[in-house]
């Protein structure tokens, strides 16, 4: 008996998330609805799809087969959507873009505004996320990512290097990093390189705050909690912060703009990547922590015809 697509989506979500609660949240339904639907699917198929355990839901052989079918169906639907999007003849319609929160607020939003004035027929759906969304499933059409190792399966353009440097409060005297309190990213970020930097240049016992995301890092140093490595893009724009030393090359990440190869010839994807990419490239000195060649560079870029 043929099963509706929603049944496959539910089973795949349970397998991906290891349980009903997270799967229900992902699909926008409540736990009891997900439980009833799974029970009905198993009854209709005459077999169990998952073994229930205290650690979560583990797919049975039948469940694994249904998940594999769901993934194949999802890829086929995504490929169809990419092909349709790539055949559009006019740069109009919705474009989903994903980028980390810091880049959206400190760099991209003015450029998005300029792009919208340039291409009013394209409507942006911006997904602010520090996670790498799956472009093959069209979780996004274009991704702006800080990465030194982007997926070789994606088509893209390297835009700039994102510089990092050590900063402290501007109203405080020059501090000896060995005797200063520190704010840093946690071990889970950047393979622990931020904590290693503190161990080399400061005192790990004086780490007063750790964060698992760049969001909030500048605010923590600005609040006086401690000195810390910050992205130059964000920190140099804050008068309350001052740089201690030069930019640190080991912490520089490449900034990429990426899309799925099937979308590289889409007129709206191409229009967005060309415009936004050129605007970001013009701001390379600021992104790398170097002074802009002229103070009005940002305004000149964003006011382009």
UniProtKB/TrEMBL annotation:
Signal peptide: none annotated. It comes from the Bacteria. InterPro entries: LysR-type_TF_proteobact-type, LysR_HTH_N, LysR_subst-bd, WH-like_DNA-bd_sf, WH_DNA-bd_sf. The keyword Protein transport does not apply. Residues 1-60 form the HTH lysR-type domain. Keywords: DNA-binding, Transcription, Transcription regulation. PROSITE patterns: HTH_LYSR. SUPFAM superfamilies: Periplasmic binding protein-like II, Winged helix' DNA-binding domain. Belongs to the LysR transcriptional regulatory family. This is HTH-type transcriptional regulator DmlR.
């Amino acid at each position: 008996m043929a099963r509706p697509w929603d049944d496959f989506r539910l089973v795949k979500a349970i397998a991906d998330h290891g349980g009903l609660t997270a799967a229900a949240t992902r699909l926008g339904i409540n736990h009891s609805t997900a439980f009833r639907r799974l029970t009905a699917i198993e009854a209709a198929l005459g077999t169990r799809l998952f073994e229930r355990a205290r650690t979560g839901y583990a797919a049975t052989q039948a469940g694994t087969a249904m998940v594999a079918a769901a993934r194949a169906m999802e890829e086929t639907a995504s490929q169809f959507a990419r092909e349709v999007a790539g055949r559009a003849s006019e740069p109009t319609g919705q474009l989903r873009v994903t980028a980390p929160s810091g880049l959206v607020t400190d760099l991209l939003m003015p450029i998005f505004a300029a792009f919208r004035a340039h291409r009013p027929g394209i409507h942006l759906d911006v997904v602010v996320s520090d996670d790498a969304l799956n472009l093959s499933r069209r979780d996004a059409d274009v991704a702006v990512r800080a990465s030194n190792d982007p997926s070789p399966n994606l088509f893209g353009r390297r835009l700039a290097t994102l510089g990092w440097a050590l900063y402290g409060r501007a109203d405080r005297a020059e501090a000896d990093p060995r005797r200063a309190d520190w704010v840093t990213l946690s071990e889970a970020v950047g393979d622990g390189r931020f904590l290693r930097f503190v161990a080399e240049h400061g005192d790990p016992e004086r780490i007063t705050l750790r964060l698992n995301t760049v969001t909030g890092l500048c605010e923590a140093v600005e609040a006086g909690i401690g000195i810390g490595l910050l992205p130059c893009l964000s920190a140099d724009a804050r008068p309350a912060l001052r740089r201690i030393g030069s930019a640190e090359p080991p912490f520089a990440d490449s900034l990429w703009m990426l899309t799925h190869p099937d979308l590289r010839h889409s007129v709206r994807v191409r229009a967005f990547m060309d415009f936004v990419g050129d605007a970001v490239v013009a701001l390379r000195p600021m992104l790398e922590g170097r002074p802009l060649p002229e103070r009005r560079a940002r305004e000149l870029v964003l006011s382009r015809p």
